[in-house]
């Protein structure tokens, strides 16, 4: 019974969804204030997601139906597994399932990969355009995030355990070093791109390709994609905190989480959308050298 409670309620699915929905609302509220609007009520995200699951599901006639249907479900399921591992490391003293950093990184790639496959399988040219853009983005931001993870591995002396990474930061967080600070900034930009927020929202780009990858999705399948996004608002900031800022957890998680939400909101509302080729240049020719610099500094002990 305790195991079921941990996985379904706290710190499992329902707790993660509630926190992620509130985090998404805070980001939308901050965006509204930047634009001199009032913004939605706190429960708006939950209502929007719930409404989708009561709508009729329409499958495009020419789509590859098995992949079109499976993509949002697999994306959602992979994020649930990430939540299982990270919340155990952060909130529970006894972990039933053990996962290392590489497993979590692999699982976080899965939603992006199946979002791309879902777009291509819909047989819509605008969705295919969005999926092609997402491929370019994924090859850019995931590679840069690898440099951040290498810095973490160097500082943790090769410790891949999530619990071990947290314990090594109890006295001094990795964020407090020069290399750790650079890696954290790269991780923050990775988070921005991973969630498809401005200036890295070219795969959706409503004004250009009418929601891109998601254009043919509606009803419960779109609901699974929205659930995945809500859970991303919960788990990705916590993952950054776990990697670089895990000196004080407990209630300190809240203000650290809110700082990250504030930062991604500022980035979103102070930058224009970049073109796909400009994003690739930005990640490969500007951020990658910074990542290499962070790795070198970490090796030197800085």
Task: Set out the fold topology.
Elements: H1 2-8, H2 13-34, H3 44-52, H4 65-91, H5 101-121, H6 125-155, H7 162-167, H8 178-194, H9 206-209, H10 219-244, H11 252-269, H12 276-300
Helix pairs in contact: 2-10, 2-11, 3-10, 4-5, 4-10, 5-6, 6-8, 6-12, 8-10, 8-11, 8-12, 10-11
Can you offer a commentary on this structure?
Helices cover 71% and strands 0% of the residues. It is mainly α. α2 crosses α10 and α4 (65-91) runs antiparallel to α5 (101-121). The model has no long low-confidence stretch (mean pLDDT 92).
Q: What's this, in brief?
A:
By secondary structure, the chain is mainly alpha-helical.
Low-confidence stretches: none
Q: Assign the structural class, choosing from mainly alpha, mainly beta, alpha/beta, alpha+beta, or little secondary structure.
A: mainly alpha
- Biggest sheet details: none
Specify the overall morphology: globular
Number of strands: 0
* Element-by-element helix/strand order: HHHHHHHHHHHH
Estimated helix fraction: over 70%
Give the overall pLDDT as a whole number: 92
Provide the domain count: 1
- N- to C-terminal distance: 46 Å
Oligomeric nature of the chains: single chain
By DSSP (H or I, 4+ residues per run), the number of helices equals 12
Strand content: under 5%
Radius of gyration: 19 Å
Task: Based on the model shown, name its key terms.
single chain, mainly alpha
């Amino acid at each position: 019974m305790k195991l079921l409670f941990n996985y379904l309620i706290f710190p499992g699915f329902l707790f993660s969804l509630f926190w992620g929905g509130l985090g998404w609302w805070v980001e939308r509220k901050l965006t509204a204030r930047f634009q001199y609007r009032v913004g939605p009520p706190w429960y708006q995200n939950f209502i929007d997601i719930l409404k989708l699951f009561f709508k009729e599901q329409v499958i495009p006639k020419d789509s590859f139906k098995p992949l079109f249907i499976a993509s949002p479900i697999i994306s959602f399921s992979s994020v649930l597994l990430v939540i299982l591992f990270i919340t155990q490391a952060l909130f529970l003293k006894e972990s039933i399932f053990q996962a290392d950093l590489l497993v979590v990184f692999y699982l976080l790639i899965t939603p992006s990969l199946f979002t791309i496959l879902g777009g291509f399988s819909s047989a819509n040219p605008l969705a295919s355009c969005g999926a092609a853009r997402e491929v370019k983005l994924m090859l850019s931001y995931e590679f840069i995030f690898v440099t951040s993870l290498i810095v973490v591995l160097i500082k943790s002396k090769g410790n891949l355990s999530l619990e071990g990474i947290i314990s090594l930061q109890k006295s001094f967080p990795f964020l407090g070093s020069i290399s750790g600070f650079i890696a954290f900034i790269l991780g923050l930009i990775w988070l921005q791109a991973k969630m498809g927020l401005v200036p890295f929202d070219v795969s959706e780009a409503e004004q250009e390709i009418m929601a891109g990858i998601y254009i043919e999705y509606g009803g419960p399948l779109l609901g699974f994609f929205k659930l995945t996004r809500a859970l991303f608002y919960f788990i990705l900031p916590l993952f950054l905190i776990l990697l670089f800022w895990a000196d004080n957890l407990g209630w300190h998680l809240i203000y650290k989480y809110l700082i990250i939400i504030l930062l991604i909101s500022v980035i979103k509302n102070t930058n224009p959308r970049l073109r796909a080729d400009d994003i690739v240049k930005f990640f490969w020719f500007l951020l990658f050298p910074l990542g290499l610099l962070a790795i070198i500094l970490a090796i030197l002990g800085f």
